[in-house]
């Protein structure tokens, strides 16, 4: 029926709008993360292989 077709078209339109909004949010989050990385201080972290999770492989220098 015409009414069902109209509802279907409205739903497709809303879906497209949501997909576009999702892409914009994803892009904005990426930009925010990029800026945060430049603002946050660099920290020298050393992992302790003795206290790390047993499945975590720690490099010899403890940095990876």
From TrEMBL:
Pfam families: PRY. InterPro entries: Butyrophylin_SPRY, PRY. It comes from the Eukaryota. Residues 45-64 form the SPRY-associated domain. Residues 1-23 are annotated as: Disordered. Residues 7-22 have a biased composition (Basic and acidic residues). This is SPRY-associated domain-containing protein. It comes from Cirrhinus molitorella. The lineage of its organism: Eukaryota, Metazoa, Chordata, Craniata, Vertebrata.
């Amino acid at each position: 029926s015409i009414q069902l077709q109209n509802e279907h078209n409205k739903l497709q339109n809303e879906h497209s709008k949501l997909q576009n909004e999702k892409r914009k949010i994803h892009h904005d989050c990426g930009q925010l993360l990029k800026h945060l990385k430049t603002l946050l201080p660099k920290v020298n972290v050393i992992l302790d292989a003795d206290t790390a999770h047993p499945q975590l492989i720690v490099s010899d220098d403890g940095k990876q």
